[in-house]
C-alpha cells in the first residue's frame, strides 16, 4: 500500500471524500493507497465548513492516522466570476506545492487528486491543472442518486445547523459516508492523464519568458505556440498572449510560494 497526499475538492457532500478514502484503501484500483495527508479545497460557506468538520470527525474515528489540511478559500462563498475561479486555481497550486514538499521529504509516495466534490468548475480546474502539474492520479467516485441525495450535509445537521452526534450514528447516513463498507453501489473512476511536457522544463521555460530572456528549447516553445499560450516578440524571445495569461500567472505564483 502506497502512502499518498490526497487533494480533494469539496462542496456540501462530505461522503465524496470519506467514501473515496474507503475505495482507495480497499483496492478499487489495481493497488491500494492510504491517504497520509488530506488537503481539502472548499469555499468559505457555512455548509462547506460543516462538511469539513464532519469529515474531520469521521476521520478521527475511522482513520486517525490521516492528517487533514483544510484549504478554505477565505471570503469566497461560491464561484461566480473568473476571479473566483482563479482563486480556486491558486489554492490548488498551494495545496499541490505542499504535497511536493512532503514527497521530497519522504513523507508520501504519490500525489493524488479527487474531483468528485464542489462545483463542476472546480472539477474542470482540478482536471486541467493535473495535466500540467505532475500529479500521479486523478479520480472521481460515482455513487447512486439516493446516496448523493441523502449525503447532503444538511441531513447531518440539527435544528441549530450544528452537527448532531445522534445523526452521525444513523445507519442510513453512515451509508452515505461509507458506501463501500455498507456494500452500497459505488465506483471509483480513474481519469486519464496526458503528459505533453516535463513540468520542470515548462517551469524553466516559463521563467525565461517572464524575464524576457532567450530560449533555446524550441520543442517547448512550439508546443506553447501551438496551444496558443505564447507568441514571439523578437528572436528567441516570447511573451504570453491572452489565452496563456492564466497559465503563466499560475506558474509565476508557483515559483513565488
Helix content bin: 40-55%
| Shape summary | elongated
Biggest β-sheet, characterized?
6 strands, mixed
User: From N to C, what is the helix and strand string?
Assistant: EHEHEHEHEHHHEHHEEH
In terms of quaternary structure, the protein is single chain
Q: What's the helix count? A: 10
CA-CA gap between termini: 31 Å
Report strand %. 15-25%
Would you mind describing this structure in some detail?
By secondary structure, the chain is an alpha/beta fold. The chain contains ten helices and eight strands. The strands form two sheets. The chain has a six-stranded mixed β-sheet with strand order 3-2-1-4-5-6, sandwiched between helices. Strands 7-8 form a two-stranded antiparallel sheet. Strand 4, helix 4 and strand 5 form a beta-alpha-beta unit. Helix 3 crosses helix 4, helix 3 packs across helix 10 and helix 8 packs across helix 10. The radius of gyration is 20 Å and the shape is elongated. The mean pLDDT is 92.
Write the layout of secondary structure elements.
Blueprint: E1 2-9, H1 15-25, E2 33-43, H2 46-62, E3 67-73, H3 82-104, E4 110-114, H4 120-130, E5 137-143, H5 145-150, H6 165-168, H7 171-177, E6 186-191, H8 199-210, H9 218-226, E7 230-234, E8 237-240, H10 245-256
Parallel strand pairs: 1-2, 1-4, 2-3, 4-5
Antiparallel strand pairs: 5-6, 7-8
Give a nutshell description of this structure.
The protein has 257 residues and is an alpha/beta fold. The protein has helices spanning 15-25, 46-62, 82-104, 120-130, 145-150, 165-168, 171-177, 199-210, 218-226, 245-256, and strands at 2-9, 33-43, 67-73, 110-114, 137-143, 186-191, 230-234, 237-240.
Amino acid at each position: 500500500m502506497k502512502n499518498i497526499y490526497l487533494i480533494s475538492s469539496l462542496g456540501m457532500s462530505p461522503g465524496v471524500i470519506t467514501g473515496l478514502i474507503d475505495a482507495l484503501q480497499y483496492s478499487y484500483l489495481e493497488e491500494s493507497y492510504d491517504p497520509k495527508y488530506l488537503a481539502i479545497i472548499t469555499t468559505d460557506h457555512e455548509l462547506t465548513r460543516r462538511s469539513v468538520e464532519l469529515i474531520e470527525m469521521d476521520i478521527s474515528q475511522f482513520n486517525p492516522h490521516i492528517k487533514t489540511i483544510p484549504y478554505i478559500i477565505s471570503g469566497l462563498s461560491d464561484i461566480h466570476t473568473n476571479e473566483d475561479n482563479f482563486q480556486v486555481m491558486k489554492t490548488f497550486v498551494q495545496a499541490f506545492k505542499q504535497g511536493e514538499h512532503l514527497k521530497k521529504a519522504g513523507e508520501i509516495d504519490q500525489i493524488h487528486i479527487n474531483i468528485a466534490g464542489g462545483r463542476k468548475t472546480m472539477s474542470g480546474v482540478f482536471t486541467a491543472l493535473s495535466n500540467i502539474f505532475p500529479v500521479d492520479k486523478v479520480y472521481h467516485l460515482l455513487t447512486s442518486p439516493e446516496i448523493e441525495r441523502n449525503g447532503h450535509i444538511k441531513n447531518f445537521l440539527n435544528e441549530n445547523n450544528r452537527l448532531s452526534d445522534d445523526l452521525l450514528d444513523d445507519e442510513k447516513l453512515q451509508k452515505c459516508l461509507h458506501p463501500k463498507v455498507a456494500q452500497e453501489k459505488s465506483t471509483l473512476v480513474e481519469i486519464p492523464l496526458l503528459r505533453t511536457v516535463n513540468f520542470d522544463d515548462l517551469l524553466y521555460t516559463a521563467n525565461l519568458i517572464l524575464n524576457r530572456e532567450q530560449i533555446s528549447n524550441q520543442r517547448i516553445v512550439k508546443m506553447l505556440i501551438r496551444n496558443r499560450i505564447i507568441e514571439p516578440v523578437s528572436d528567441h524571445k516570447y511573451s504570453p498572449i491572452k489565452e496563456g495569461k492564466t497559465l503563466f500567472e499560475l506558474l509565476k505564483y508557483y515559483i513565488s510560494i
